[in-house]
Amino acid sequence: WQKGYPNEAVWIDDIRQGITWVAVENGRVLGAFMFQTAPEISYEKIDGAWLTEGTAYGSLHRVCVAEESKGSGVAGELFRHGFALAGKAGLPSVRIDTHEGNLPMRRALEKAGFTLCGRITLIGGSEDGDPRLAYEFVLK
Length: 140
Fold this sequence. Notes:
Elements (H helix, E strand, L loop, with lengths): L7 H10 L2 E6 L2 E9 L10 E2 L9 E8 L8 H15 L4 E6 L4 H9 L3 E7 L9 E8 L2
Parallel strand pairs: 4-5
Antiparallel strand pairs: 1-2, 2-4, 3-6, 5-7, 6-7
């Protein structure tokens, strides 16, 4: 990632809060992500439009796939688990953002059924002010 974020302290805090999910197979970590149900401040303003404007949503952050697992469908499995978490929480959708230059993630998002909704600007942290592409997946 950019600008040293997320660092080990961020991941440890996510784990302590119980919001990190890890995909493991035969003792190997394949990937991980953070899921939250709290509103994301960076998603309040969008140059575009959310599919479910004005409703609660889940959001995925820090989605990562182990180098040796890339291209094997792990990202899709992580997204599906995030969708299930949102469904269990009674939320209608899942939102996520990514750097415009992150072409593998953009392809994975589109393959998983996310819709590009516009652009957001990150608020806070080491990436404050940085632009991102914003996506949303509406649960069936």
